[in-house]
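Pectinesterase inhibitor domain-containing protein, Brassica campestris. Tokens?
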Amino acid sequence: MPINLNITVGTIFLLLGVSCQGAAALMPSLSEPCMVTDFPALCRGTINGQTNVNAATDVAIRELMKRTRHARDIAKKELKVLDGGVATCLSNFNSAFDNLDKALKNVKENDGFSLNINLSAALTDYDTCSEAMKGSKEINVVYKSAGVLYKMADNCLALSTLVKL
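Tokens:
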């Protein structure tokens, strides 16, 4: 009996070792945080080579805020020309900006729960804008901006899962 017990325990340790190696292979490299995102090329262009996940998340959120500000300015100009979808987008861009501002504070305060909530809210804001613009007869720059902002927010949310809080 002791031989079988030793073989069983040895087999368990062997399987655990193989399992851990497999899990490590699936985990993103700490030097490549964008591997966890759905849009890694966009992420890499956004974080500019940052390998520290906290810094990468911070940079990604700041870039998203910058582009949201720009999209908001475009929506203000388009508001006079297009239908109510643009007004919805303008409102949602303002809301997203506020949520991203809170998310930056959450990173600094090591509040992962609130970080996830605020990034999720921003993601919803961009999605709501896109949905409002789908009814528009022509695809315009506001709709296209909302699509890119959605992808960037999705990347921020993915990066936030790596943040060491």
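The helical segments are 2-26, 40-47, 53-78, 84-108, 112-134, 141-160.
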